[in-house]
Amino acid sequence: MYDIKALYEAESVPHAIQLLLEHPEAQIIAGGSDVLVQIREGKRAGKELVSIYGLDELRGVTLEEDGTLRIGSLTSFSHITRDPLIQRYINVLGQAVDQVGGPQIRNIGTIGGNTCNGVTSADSASTLFAWDAVIELTGPDGVRRVPIEAFYIKAGQVDLRPGELQTGILIPKAAYEGYQGHYIKYAMRNAMDIATTGCSVNVRLSADRQTMEDVRIAYGVAGPIPMRARTAEGAAKGQPTTRQAVRSFARTVLEDVNPRDSWRAAKDFRQHLAVTLAERALTESILLAGGVIHE
Amino acid sequence: MYVGKKVTRVDAYDKVMGRTKYTDDLCDKGAYVARILHATIANGLVTSIDVSQAEQIPGVVKVFTCFDVKEKHYFATAGHPWSTDEEHQDVADRLVLTQRVRFYGDDIAAVVAENEVAADQALRAIRVEYEEYPFVLDVQEAMKEGAPQLHEDYPHNILKHTSIRKGSYEEAIQEPGLIKVEGWYETPAVQHCHIENFICYAEMVGERIKVVTSTQIPHIVRRVVGQALGLPWGSIQVIKPYIGGGFGNKQDVLYEPLCAWLCVQLGGHLVKLDIPREDTFVSTRVRHAIRNHIVSWVRPDGTFAARKLESFSDQGAYASHGHSIVAKGMGAFPQLYPCDNVECDAYTVFTNKSVAGAMRGYGIPQAMWAVECHTEEVAARLGMDPIEFRRKNLMPVGYVDPFSKNELYSDTFNQCIDKGIEATDYLRKYEAYQHQTGDVRRGIGMAVFWYNTAVWPISLETSSCRMVLNQDGSIQVQLGETEIGQGADTAYAQMAADVVGIPMDMVHVVSCQDTDVTPFGTGAYASRQTYTAGFSIRQTGQLLKERILSYAQELTRMPPYNLDLVEGKIVRITDGRELMTLGELATQALYSLTHSQHITAESTAQIKSNAYSFGCTFAEVEVDIPMCKVKLLDVVNVHDAGSIINPALAEAQVHGGMSMGIGFGLSEKMLFDPKSGRVLNNNLLDYKLSTFMDHPRLRAFFVENPEPTSAFGTKALGEPPTCSVAPAIRNAVYQATGVFVNEAPVNPHNLFRRFTEEGLIEKEAPGHV
Amino acid sequence: MSKQYKLVRCTINGKQVEKMIDVRASLTDMLRDDYRLTSIKKGCEVGECGACNVLVNGECFNSCIYLAVWADGKEILTLEGLAGPNGEISDIQQAFIDEAAVQCGFCTPGFIMSATEILASGREYSDDEIRKQMSGHLCRCTGYENIFRAVKKTMLRRLGKNAEADAV
User: Fold this and answer.
1) A154 lies in which domain range?
2) Over the stretch A209-230, which tens digit does the pLDDT of each residue have?
């Protein structure tokens, strides 16, 4: 039995907005795998909840007319992984969220919840950062679209205004067309774990597959919120697909990342991982894009 | 005959059908719910507790604090048999609630409420003030002059220090040409993680207190609840239903005294105390973290001249099982690899941390980590093959321990090692994995273990059994040695069927222990249930059979010595004719108008023997050096547990122990915040218990040398599978990388540190290559 | 404040049921307390151990972190619902017995329900896939080995591969 003051179940997005405005103190609950745990810990005990779990209109993946890939915010991790559009256009996202927790968590956990709780270790977040995802928010003043990097404000805090809820995550066509990517979750065990560090890389190769035209890399747990390593990206752009270029790119991420010392992992270990994962994830991305690594 | 066969577990059907009732399933929904308020300082004194707000919360019945404990009955919690000799009694250092706080998580108050939400709200509303003392988290710091003292009677926080001396270490090391190998080996506090948390409930029935609890040791719980409440032991009734694992944590009297005390304070109302997972980690028991220092002086021919062991065992805040754990580990040291000159010292030391108690292996996993890591290093220093070095030095056949009189009767070690070599293709792989380069390397390694089955002669060994004949010729069997998931009831049913001479489905083992009706027995602990209960089952079964055959004489005129009971039938030995079924006899006996008799038997066996149990683990790994990760490719345990009662259950039990050993070797570790003493990872996400994806196929093999002291030729198998897995994995990592990791677990944090120290990983610095 | 209840109508183990449920209840609370289905076990109450796992519309969920009110209109299957109409044991339950995949039994119901979802797909999974599909459960007794055997053998038998099943 959870210490919940009151539960309001939204029947539609407008109804959810109305409930949130009527109950400004209320916490949104989607799948609940974070919110309910926090209630049990006492952190959010005794609060009102607005449940949006019943909003089936926010479930599923679609392709919009302009080629934008739209992921409904309540789509569960397991449904994202199994979705044919995801598999075709951004398979790495399906692979990333397939490493969240265990099967039951992937059935209840939603991509909206995963991004709205603002934690740096979210397995979906680094890939969404690396693919220039756009967050769609719906509120009393209509729909707002925010690049995911701007959506994250600080640890545990995202740009969600009063009365707003996240209704979708969009991947523009320009962000995915021609790119191949790979995600590595580094954790202490192979299931039921959170990332010590997560690294998502994608690459667009030149027509002859000899040059990296564009490289994007994002991390989880390399700073207080998920982050891109822009210096490294800049350094890799236009470089040949050689072992040396990949290594150089990987070492450069240290100019961008800022992991902290914590009991979960030491700073120097996380820095080491950032480099190792960057090298491996870029290597794999190049191979996926049909390139080869020249020694 | 059923012993030695793969018969199905007697409780499996109910368990897969979802019918089996555990403590929480049996508790009436009208129970009050109790929750414990734990201290948020590591050392100090509670100066005041304000419960006024908490008691205003609707649904809260009452809040009890340490200041409400007027009668101070100190009690010991270890699940050891009581000793009538005061010198040998466990240390009584606990109260149901304590004002003097000795660890972050100590029990200072309890809320009783009508429901869990109100109870949790009340916990958050209680205000506590403390007088804080400095605290100490490290054993060797705790032993220093001026360190914070936890208990007045134990200067330097040393609960106990014992030694072993053999020959003369100091003289022996003078021998010229000796090679000195020295190392420090450390294992962390880990937790049992039985999937059912600790739970109990209590209510008064008449003037007596009934406690239903998830325990391994119902008869001990009765005694300790009596002691903790200052009540006659007979006024306590303890019932143990099926339990969701124990692994030694429930071989401690955890919260039954508090629950019974709360029940009494509330006039006998039913009170349930369900310990959340987070509290199970912090405030029940953990495995002792032990730091071992070993020095070996070795001759170039690979023999030991002298050896020294110093063990520092982290007891945490209260005595619980205390020194017995490290003493067992120390006891193994001079026996496993005998040497003429040995010096051992073991210290058990209080620190302001979670209390350490019994856990599967009872000090031996820690000791084998140290000894088998060290053995590998000695062999490496000598340039000897690690297995050949072990074969040369391991306890020889015919070795007798002067204290326990345990004897190694067979060439067990070589037989187990040979089986492990064959099962893992060790020789070929060991050769193939020499001299590797590259980021990803493989290795294969092994370790052996020493184990003692039961607790004689350190402690009492007694087992009582009752058998009751039913009208249909079936029997009930009752024992105090409990089923805790290990399959004891099934083994008992097999043994009883064979001894009495009836089909196994005619044996009904009463799984639930109720101290009002179950014969006295001290419960499930050590690796002694099959060994110990075997004696009383055999003795009682023979008694029952004698009584049956004696009654058969009245019905058949045949003398008992010409009769036998075979598969439930009275058989005349002289011609093999079946004279009657046992059901016919039992019905006659009960309802006879001339000589009515309820045929039963009950007897106690005191066991004054013990048995060595030996074996080994072989492990093959792949180490990804830049990733600091070990992938376990193959793991094999080989055991000589004497005659195997049930091969399927024995194999299953070995798997479970291996899994616990894998966690111990690779991932599990409780983390204490150095700034506060708080446990940081007290949940199943942050505490890295291995998952389904962290294991390869687990393989178990047996060498069956029947144990001559044993009623059924059997000996320890419950704990031994946990003992040698971690050092085997560590030794495989050494073969792969050439790096010794002496601090368990071999997790990425430790590997990163060691690989960096050894130059396998370069420290990253920002900048281009 | 006064307690808030909601009528929850759902199908539990094939039977249409409805009850007024406290909105604060987890699905574990509802199944254990209101319907006395005690195969659902509480091991952590935060979705980390899998002992409370049940199927909701054919997918596995840890019922401890699933609000009971969300079950409205859903089909719930618990271990108690696996047996046939006359109490016949199902193949996966029998396999857990035959493979000695049960020890203390506390995690068993959750594991069997995850196995049920896997087996219902009719697919043949690789060993690694089986491990992954079963990885939402912790077990301290079995080392997962015999559970793996039970699931794999039942999968192969359902696919008519009896010889392969025997060789597991």
Assistant:
1) 56-172
2) 999 999 999 999 999 999 999 9
How many residues in chain C?
168
Residues of A in contact with C67 (CB under 8 A): 2, 7, 29, 32, 36, 51, 53
Is this prediction's ipTM beyond 0.90? yes
Tokens for B388? Answer: 């050949």
What pLDDT shows up at residue B762?
Answer: 87
Residue of A nearest to B762 (CA): A272
Return the CATH number at A37: 3.30.43
Helix A243-252 to helix A267-288 angle (10° resolution) is 140
Location of structure tokens 């969404």: A128
Residue C108 shares a structural domain with residue C141:
yes
Kindly tell me if the per-residue pLDDT of B766 is higher than 60. Answer: no
CATH tag, B13-133+192-283? 3.90.1170.50
Question: Chains B and C: how many Cβ contacts under 8 Å?
Answer: 170
Q: For residue A134, tell me if it sits in a domain.
A: yes
Residue B769: which of A248, C5, C51 has the closest Cα?
A: A248
Count of CB atoms within 10 A of residue A154's CB?
Answer: 9
Establish if C100 belongs to a structural domain.
yes
> Considering only residues 586 to 645 of chain B, which have any Cβ-Cβ distance to chain C shorter than 8 Å?
none
Cα A278–chain centre separation: 17
**Upstream peptide bond of B402 is cis (omega within 30 degrees of 0):** no
Q: Where are the domains of chain B?
A: 13-133+192-283, 394-456+611-757, 462-606
Same domain, C20 and C43: yes
Contact flag B655-C142 (C-beta cutoff 8 Å): yes
**Residue B248: strand, helix, or coil:** coil
Q: Which domain holds residue C116?
A: 91-161
CA torsion B635→B641→B643→B645, rounded to 10°?
A: -70
Half-sphere exposure of B436 (CA within 13 A, CB side): 25
Neighbour-count burial for C73-93, b at 16+ CB within 10 Å, e otherwise: ebbbbbbbbbbeeeeebbebb
Pairing between strand C53-56 and C75-77? antiparallel
CB contact under 8 A, B22 and C107: no
CATH topology identical between B13-133+192-283 and B394-456+611-757: no
Number of domains within chain C: 2
What is the Cα–Cα distance from B681 to B281, expressed in whole angstroms?
9
Q: Do C47 and A4 touch (CB under 8 A)?
A: no
Instruction: Compute the distance between CA of residue C4 and CA of residue C58 in angstroms, rounded to an integer.
Output: 29
Are C100 and B652 in contact by the 8 Å Cβ rule? The answer is yes
Residue written as token pair 């190998």 = B181
Roughly what angle, to the nearest 10 degrees, separates helices C108-120 and C145-158?
30
pLDDT digits (tens, 9 = 90+) for C87-125: 999 999 999 999 999 999 999 999 999 999 999 999 999
Chain A hits for C144, Cβ within 8 Å: none
Contacts with B, C 54-93, CB within 8 Å: 78-80, 83, 89, 93
